[in-house]
Design brief:
Layout: E1 2-3, E2 6-9, H1 13-24, E3 29-32, E4 48-49, H2 60-76, E5 81-82, E6 86-91, H3 92-97, H4 101-112, E7 117-119, H5 121-127, E8 135-141, E9 144-146, H6 148-161, E10 165-167, E11 170-178, E12 181-189, E13 195-199, E14 202-205, H7 211-217, E15 224-234, E16 242-245, E17 254-258, E18 261-265, E19 269-270, H8 281-291, E20 303-314, E21 329-333, H9 334-338, E22 343-348, H10 354-369, H11 388-394, H12 402-424, E23 431-433, E24 438-439, H13 440-447, H14 455-462, H15 474-485, H16 488-492, H17 494-509, H18 516-531
Parallel strand pairs: 1-13, 2-3, 2-14, 3-10, 6-16, 14-22
Antiparallel strand pairs: 4-9, 5-9, 6-8, 7-8, 11-12, 12-13, 15-18, 15-19, 15-20, 16-17, 17-18, 21-22, 23-24
Helix pairs in contact: 1-6, 1-10, 2-4, 13-14, 13-15, 15-17
């Protein structure tokens, strides 16, 4: 039987944050996740690093947490954060609907410690030329964009340096208890189907939208309501700042720039299961009709895809659902609440406060273990930065504009290895993904990771196929590389891996099939079905 002092279940931002925090305190900790890391809500959101402005009126505590954590994450995760800044804009219709909200918001920001500087309309339109001319006031706040994939993997890299362990594609199917005490978990390997046990002294349930299901395995109940949010990605940078509507939080009122694209979000809909990441044309139309009030020419822009994720809202007895539910977090000690010793659940919260949530959870676990080591996650960077000297030396081997992107994705150790590979093997400088500047050498490096079982796993680490062509060209290229260097059974079924990759992209494209997107999808179908005779799956369709 395998053993760890603490087993953390759930590979989202909160789970990996707990893994890092406990490992840095010297605790023997293992994280298990039923799929790949960052496969749920932590990768299916608008990528906003909140200033707290969005909560300045409704939830002062959340607003204060956000601005503090915003500052910390900028410091410890520099390569994950794009410090774009944010702008809250009030439209004439917003002021008509609630004439007092703006004043409340300004005071709320002041009370929460959020710098909100009002600017003239001339300056607002100079900074954001595409804004609607129905804007009547504008404020600058310290919002930013953050890469959830990169931030989470860098937490894991940091945890590993301190002895933290990780098992992906490992599903918890049972909680082992004895005399009212947790003794371990029973798990199933996703690929082999093998079932085995992992002993532990403490079990931390950080399964997000699935936290209620895990609690049930221990005979407990946790009030978690999955709340689905749908978002749209556009193939251009519509805005330089994160742009928020200055009104009561609602659907479709945030635009977040990420690299060369922009994400519009989000909706709020209670769903029975966190597995529901479906999107529909009606949701797309709803977001577009709201979004075009901020950017009037929004329908002239090409939509890349729609995607959705489920927020794990904590619903205490008698609590509200949807946007009425708190965005705060809760920690449940099941020994105190249910009489089961050695089990905790952490639910709720948001990506911006993941580190704080992990700190509070690790404090509780450490207290149970008698561990008095302080939390250091707010001071120590996740990974060292790649030096300017190393990037300068590598530019002759990487594609134009690709060096800085690769450095932020890879970190110093992997970047040095890939640079050496490209230096000694010029053929590996070839781009697999032009949209995101991903080379053969980088894909090969990520394929060597023990947690890389599928092409989609490599996608989440490199952004392969996540650019404007949505894997139209890189799916075939990456499949050929994966067949050569991939691990285990996945490499043997590279054709199946390619189909899975394409179908994942199609899921998001299907709800936005309009105009040029239809023509491009037909090109993809012709390329794979007709030119390459890829049968058994309809590219851009359903299984046959």
């Amino acid at each position: 039987m395998e053993k760890a002092t603490v087993v953390v279940v759930g590979g989202g931002a909160t789970g990996v944050g707990i893994l890092r925090d406990l490992a840095m305190r010297g605790v023997d900790v293992m994280l298990v996740e039923k799929q790949d890391l960052v496969n749920g809500a932590s990768s299916r959101y608008h990528g906003l690093l909140h200033s707290g402005g969005r909560y300045a009126v409704k939830d002062q505590e959340a607003a204060k947490e956000c601005i503090i954590e915003n500052t910390i994450l900028r410091k410890i995760g520099k390569s994950c954060v794009e410090a774009s800044g944010g702008m809250f804009i009030c439209l004439d219709i917003d002021r008509e609907q609630d004439p007092t909200y703006e004043e409340q918001w300004v005071q709320g920001c002041k009370d929460s410690g959020i710098e909100a500087r009002q600017i003239s309309l001339d300056e607002a339109f100079r900074l954001e030329p595409l804004l609607s001319r129905h804007v009547v006031s504008a404020y600058l706040v310290p919002d930013a964009a953050i890469d959830g994939f990169r931030m989470s993997w860098q937490n894991v890299d940091s945890a590993k340096r301190y002895g933290g362990r990780l098992k992906t594609y490992t599903e918890v199917i049972g909680v082992i208890t004895e005399n009212g005490t947790v003794k371990g978990v029973k798990v199933r390997d996703y690929f082999s189907g093998e079932e085995y046990e992992i002993a532990c002294d403490i079990l931390v349930n950080a399964a997000g939208g699935w936290a209620g299901e895990l609690a049930q395995l221990a005979g407990l109940e946790v009030g978690v309501q999955p709340d689905k949010g749908t978002l749209l990605a556009f193939n251009q940078r519509l805005t330089s700042h994160v742009v928020n509507r200055l009104h009561k939080s609602s659907d479709g009122d945030i635009f977040v720039p990420h690299g060369s694209i922009t994400i519009l979000g989000t909706t709020s809909m209670s769903v029975p299961s966190a597995e529901d990441t479906s999107t529909a044309r009606e949701e797309v139309e709803k977001l577009m009709s709201i979004g075009e009030k901020t950017f009037e020419h929004l329908r002239d822009c090409r939509m890349l895809r729609a995607f959705a994720g489920s927020r794990p809202l904590y619903i205490p007895p008698g609590g509200s659902l949807g946007r009425g539910a708190s965005r705060g977090f809760a920690i449940v000690d099941h020994e105190k609440q249910d009489g089961l010793k050695g089990m905790f659940t952490i639910v709720g919260g948001k990506f911006t406060t993941y580190r704080l949530m992990a700190e509070k959870m690790a404090d509780a676990v450490a207290a149970k273990l008698g561990n008095t080591e302080p939390c250091r996650t707010a001071e120590e960077p996740l990974v060292p930065e790649v030096s300017e000297a190393d990037k300068k030396a590598a530019r002759k081997y990487f594609p134009a504009y690709g060096t800085d992107l690769a450095a932020t994705r890879l970190g110093p150790e992997r970047f040095a290895r890939v640079t050496e590979t490209l230096k000694n093997n010029p053929e590996k400088r070839e781009l697999l993904c032009e949209c995101e500047n991903v080379t053969v050498g980088e894909v090969e490096e990520m394929a060597k990771e023990l947690s890389s079982f599928r092409i989609n796993d490599i996608r989440r680490r490199t952004r392969l196929g996540m650019g404007t062509c949505q894997a139209n060209f890189c799916a075939l290229r990456s499949a050929s590389v994966f067949a050569r260097v991939g691990r285990d059974e996945g490499a043997k079924d590279s054709l199946g891996q390619m189909k899975e990759f394409l179908q994942g992209r199609w899921k998001g494209i299907r709800p936005v099939l309009l105009g040029r997107t239809i023509r491009e999808t037909e090109m993809t179908r012709a390329l794979y079905e007709l030119s390459f005779n890829v049968n058994g799956h309809r590219i851009g369709g359903d299984k046959e």
